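@channel sequence for tomorrow's demo:
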Amino acid sequence: MKGLTSLLEMDGLSLVLPLERVFDDLPNVVFFIKDRAGRYLAVNRALMERCALAEKARLVGKRPSDFFPTALAERYERQDRRVLESGKPVLDQLELHLYPNRGRGWCLTSKYPVLDRRTGKIAALMGISRDVEDSASRAASHGLPELAQAIEVLQTRLQDPPEMAELAELCGLSTVRFTRLVQRVFHLTPRQLAMKVRLDEALHLLATTDSSLSDIALETGFCDQSAFTRHFRRMTGVPPGIFRSQTARQ
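structure tokens (generated this afternoon):
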């Protein structure tokens, strides 16, 4: 779709805003618009580069399954269909992304239905994924030793993860203050942050060891393999065993 624009009304003036160009200037944000069939209509430079392509046009008309590991592509496409069919947006969904030109990374993804102004029906879908930076380095860069300590506690107590109130107390903060700091620095809730730390370790173990899923579940603080599988699937769209086998072939 050439010249994708959004018409904004400001103080009686109509401004034509080239959305692709705006999002091209945000290196840590992926932006895209898809049609009802799930094909890309428009993308920004970040998505193009992460798919190891030289031109954005190479993505247009294609689906996630043309570029991403099967496990993740199926998740993205199911999520797209849910938004297109229900008309309800997905907001700040913490999920794992894998791109052809880099390792895994966590993102906060939001997707919105786009309405045809003439018919009022859903015509497309717009999505934005913001990178979630490495938790420890982000805490250090903000000069917040309390949050750096929280990350350390979460990483060292994988098998016995603390409740949020206990974690806040260990960091010398009230629960309210701790929650606000986590949201301001990481753009995550404390529960999302804790789950990210545990699943980061699970991903590492899946990729670098032959440990059984039940052992990995216990090592990362889940009560059993069933609970581990449920949480893992919520973040990646597939069970950990399938994720391990499919990503190993990429």
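heads up for whoever presents: The radius of gyration is 20 Å.
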